[in-house]
Amino acid sequence: MIRVLVADDHHLVRTGFRVILEIEEDIEVIGEASDGAQAVDLAASARPDVVLMDVEMPGVDGLEATRRIVAADAGSSVLILTTFDRDDYLFAALQAGASGFLLKNGTPEALVDAIRVVARGDALLAPEITRRVIATFTKRGGPTRTDGARLSELTPREQEVLVLLAGGATNAEIAATLLLGEATVKTHVSRVLAKLGLRDRTQAVVFAYEHGVVTPRG
Fold first, then answer.
1. What is the 3 state secondary structure string of 39-56?
2. Structure confidence by residue, pLDDT tens digits, 175-191
3. Could you tell me which CATH number the domain at 2-124 has?
4. Helix (H, G, I), strand (E, B) or coil at 32
5. Domain Response regulatory, which positions (predicted)?
6. Largest alpha-carbon pair distance within the chain?
7. CATH topology of domain 141-210
């Protein structure tokens, strides 16, 4: 059973999400939070598998709440609700450790699928999100730091996988590009994340652009 905490400052929105999610046999809404501080407290006490997090909330917003939940390392993944109208929000959420992003105007099916993806430990990083990350780095002027020691731990093949991850490629797409089996690609991805100390594919994209592994195109 996937245990979900819904954090949104609008009661009707929280109720709507609960109705959608509790129809599913494998999803249980274990709590609701009306602001970021409450979300952090409930995440610590209830330890949900997934926190469905709004960004703009009174007091502690969703970005700061995400940072605190991820830093607590209690096993909860954060799925951000976004409208894509603020690039700074998107990038800040990536840096905070969010595992996925969801459009607020998406379908109920997309919401359910996203929660399942994040709950099983994968990152939900759609191509449009990757494009936003690239655009953000282009505006910021490119990589901000280097980490040669950590990068040197990657084998040449793992470096190739990291570059493809940074482009938003799925395991199937990486397998096709490198002429590998998907199981082998999954192993390579796991090793890349472990060696770089990253939680998921989302953080891998941020790392790749921050450290100059790939360069945004103008």
1. HHHHHHHHCCCEEEECCC
2. 999 999 999 999 999 99
3. 3.40.50.2300
4. strand
5. 3-119
6. 50
7. Arc Repressor Mutant, subunit A (1.10.10)
Q: Which of 57, 50, 44 is nearest to 89 (CA)?
A: 57
95-120 confidence digits (pLDDT tens): 788 888 777 777 899 899 989 988 88
Delimit the domains of the chain by residue range: 2-124, 141-210
Rounded Cα distance, 151 and 145, in Å:
12
- Ramachandran angles phi, psi of 216, nearest 5°: -60, 140
Of 103, 132, 100, whose CA–CA distance to 117 is shortest?
Answer: 100
**What confidence category does residue 14 fall into, taking pLDDT thresholds of 50, 70 and 90?**
very high
Tell which residue, 200, 188, 202, has the closest CA to residue 155.
188
Lowest mean pLDDT among 9-18, 41-50, 72-81, 123-132: 123-132
Q: Is 143 helix (H, G, I), strand (E, B) or coil?
A: coil
